[in-house]
C-alpha cells in the first residue's frame, strides 16, 4: 500500500475548517456560532488533559499539562485561541499588558481579545481565583 506523505494532506484540515465556518455564516449563524462550528474541527487536536493554544482555528502552537507553576509561552505567545480540555482544573493566563484571565475547565476563549498572552498556570482548583476574570466574559 502506498502512503501519502503527511505534508501533502496537512492542507485539508485548514480548508475544511474554512469551509465549515463559511457554510455556517451562509446558513445564517452568528459569527460566534460560526466560530464554534469551525472550532469543532480542531478540538480533536487537543486531547485531555491538555490546555492548547492556537494561532488560528487550525494551527496549534502548543499544549500544556503540568500543574503548579507558571510556564512562559514561547511559540504560543500571543495566541489567538486557547482551549482547556481538563475536567477539573482552571488555567490562568497572564498578558504582557498586566491583565490576567482564567479559562474554566472544558472552556475556551480568545486571549487575543485581551492582549498578548505570555504565561500559563494550570491550577489544581476547579474554580477561578478572585482577581482572574473568566476569559470571554
Notes on the structure:
The chain is of the alpha+beta class. The protein has 2 domains: 1-41; 47-137, Gamma-B Crystallin, domain 1. The protein is 20% helix and 23% strand. The protein has helices at residues 6-9, 12-26, 31-39, and strands spanning 51-54, 60-64, 71-72, 81-84, 91-95, 100-103, 108-109, 117-122. Strands 2-1-4-7 form a 4-stranded antiparallel β-sheet, with no helix packed on it. The longest helix is centred in the N-terminal third of the chain and has 15 residues, at 12-26. The termini are far apart.
Helix and strand composition category? alpha+beta
Number of helices: 3
- H/E order of the elements? HHHEEEEEEEE
CATH architecture of the largest domain: Sandwich
* Strand order of the biggest β-sheet: 2-1-4-7
Largest sheet data: 4 strands, antiparallel
For the residues shown, what is the average pLDDT? Answer: 79
What is the fold's blueprint, element by element?
Blueprint: H1 6-9, H2 12-26, H3 31-39, E1 51-54, E2 60-64, E3 71-72, E4 81-84, E5 91-95, E6 100-103, E7 108-109, E8 117-122
Antiparallel strand pairs: 1-2, 1-4, 3-8, 4-7, 5-6, 5-8
